[in-house]
C-alpha cells in the first residue's frame, strides 16, 4: 500500500553529526520509533497522522552512528494497536532492542506471549488528544492487570495540564509506570511553579513512577534548535530535565524520540540531541544511571548488575 504523508510533514534528519559527548558504554536509547515502511507494515486506519517511513535498518544505523548499544522501540500511534512493525524490529535486533506495545482489551494471552517473545516489556497508554481517540479507563486498567502478570510496565503519555484529572487513574496502576517526556511541561512556566511541582509530587509520592527526560526538541519554546553545530540547544528545557534527573536519579530514562513524529518547525540533528545529555545529567555517575543502569534494570533485568 502506498501512503501520502500528512501535509507539512518533516522527515527525520539525514546525515546527523557525530556527538561530541561520548555515551557511556552500553547506553540505551530508551525512546524511539519505527514507521512502517508503509508498503510492508501499513499505517493504521484510525491514525491521526501519516508519517514518512523510518525503517528498522535506519534506526539501527542511527543507533550505531550515535554510539548507543541498544534501543527501546515504542509503538507509534500511527500504527494503532498493530504492533507488527515494532515487534519485527525488536526480533531483528539480535537482542539489542526491547519494545513497548499498544494493545486493546481484545488482545489474547497468546498474542501477549508472542509480543513478550519478540522483546516487548510494556504497553503504552496515550492521553494526548491530537494522537489518539479516548480509550475507557476501565479497559486500560484491565490491560494493566493482565500485563502485570508478565512483569511488564505501563508507559503513559499525557500533557501537564491533564495530570490533575488523570492523577487517580495513574496512581491506581499496579505496575511500574513510565512517563513519556516528563509529562510535557509548559517550559514557559517556572520550574518551581505549581504545575511542575505537581509532576515532581507525582514522582516523589509514587516510587513506582519513572520519567523519560526526553524530547527537548518538542518541549522547547525559545530554543536554540539542535542544528548547525549548536552545543547549547533548548536551554529552556534544561532546568526541568535537570531537576528530574537530580531528584530521581534511579528512575529516569533518556531517548532520542527518533524519527520525531509531528515536529512542525524543525527537525533536530540527532547527534546534537545527544550533546544535550550532559547539560541535564551533569556527572558521569548521573549519566551512567540515566543511560545504562536504569534502562537495563527495566528492560534487560536478566543482564543488569
Ligand atoms: O508528540 C508526539 O506527536 C508524539 C507522537 C508519538 C506517537 O505518535 O506515537 O510518540 C511520541 O513519543 C510523541
TrEMBL record:
- Please indicate which superkingdom the organism of origin belongs to: Bacteria
User: Under which EC number(s) is this enzyme classified?
Assistant: 3.1.1.57
User: Which UniProt keyword terms apply here?
Assistant: Aromatic hydrocarbons catabolism, Hydrolase
Per its record, what are the GO molecular function terms? 2-pyrone-4,6-dicarboxylate lactonase activity
Q: Which InterPro entries match?
A: Amidohydro-rel, Aro_Compnd_Degr_Hydrolases, GLI/LigI, Metal_Hydrolase
- Please list the reactions this protein catalyses: 2-oxo-2H-pyran-4,6-dicarboxylate + H2O = (1E)-4-oxobut-1-ene-1,2,4-tricarboxylate + H(+)
Q: Which family does it belong to?
A: Belongs to the metallo-dependent hydrolases superfamily. PDC hydrolase family.
Q: What is the protein's name according to its record?
A: 2-pyrone-4,6-dicarboxylate lactonase
Species annotation: Rubrivivax albus
